[in-house]
Amino acid sequence: MNTNSPLPAPGAPLQHYISSAPFDLQSVETMTPEQSKVYQASQLRLMWWKFRKHRLALISGIFLAALYFGILICEFLAPYNLHTRNMDYIYSPPQRVHLFHDGQFVGPFVYGRQMTLDMDTLKRNYIENQDDVQRLRFFCKADSYRFWGLIDGDRHFVCPAENGQLFLAGTDRLGRDVLSRIIYGARISLTIGLVGISFSFLLGIVIGGLAGYHGGIFDLIVQRIIEVLQSIPSIPLWLALAAIMPITWSPILIYFGITVILGLLDWTGLARAVRSKLLALREEDYVLAAQLMGARSSRIIGRHLIPGFMSHLIATATISIPGMILGETALSFLGLGLRAPITSWGILLTEARSVSVIAFYPWLLLPMLPVILVIMAFNFLGDGLRDAADPYK
């Protein structure tokens, strides 16, 4: 409208001016490509962008992914078979890997060793022979094994030289390579956390979901049970439940028994978290709409309520897994958990229960290192997932 035109007379109809230019609906709120990328991104993409900024969580996630991939091919990664004994190298200390010999590049190699026995202390002393250069072999054939107990194989990622030795983490009282046993033990120690948390999640979501959604007497009974379980010290309860398992059980049954024990003791915290969330979400309008449409309680909880805070549950799971790994390690270390021939990090640490062994053969404590690294990695990963769970903050 022309602002310089005279005002119309009182009572006269107003004149309307309509632009003949085509109307572009998108021009009302035009966004730059950067703004469009953010505002039109899905919640998963926003969570990934926020998680990626947490460097420690990202590195921990890559580290754990590499470990879990490694347990799939642990027979290939281990230099020796799990049960291979080197009777001439009992309690041999770790060997150092060298690249240069006499100023010349040779490649990764170790020096051969000669054993002498101290007749006063009966301690084996190993002396490196600088003239015996043993080059490492890669993607080579060495000890035979059965891949996952199904397929015969003998290919390894790294092997000692022909008629040589390769003990990067030393050997134990039977001459078995500690590094190979750590790699094999990772399969049990890492998977027991995943299986245990799956069992714990099933109990926590079902029991906590029903208690939070229905409330009433069922919620009251569940809360009292949770309070009783949480009031009992964890270690004595672990010991009592582990002692119940018969010694005649096979190693596989003992493995699943330990997993069930860990799951039974870890569901209480998750159940309370699910209950508190559902107490707030059950009053939402979409829950009332689902009820009016005739949806059952299981469908409302599983399809409408649980997905609303699944990111929080995932973060809780990553923080709970370390507790289960530590629980298995503690039970096996005390002799009440897994038993031979199953190999886990806790069983490997039983070799170092004696003070004299720790004093003379400290490398037997090396299985403690992956336990510490895995626990720290899961905690950092849980912190990153917890921060990324709400990408709009």
UniProtKB/TrEMBL annotation:
Protein's membrane topology: Multi-pass membrane protein
Record has NADP as a keyword: no
Pfam families attached to this UniProt entry: BPD_transp_1, OppC_N
KW Transmembrane (keyword) present: yes
Transmembrane segments: 56-78, 188-213, 253-274, 305-325, 360-381
Keywords: Membrane, Transmembrane, Transmembrane helix, Transport
Record-linked PROSITE patterns: ABC_TM1
Ranges of residues in domain ABC transmembrane type-1: 186-382
GO cellular component terms attached to this protein's record: plasma membrane
An annotated GO BP: transmembrane transport
Family: Belongs to the binding-protein-dependent transport system permease family.
Name under which the protein is recorded: ABC transporter permease
Biological source species: Mesorhizobium waimense
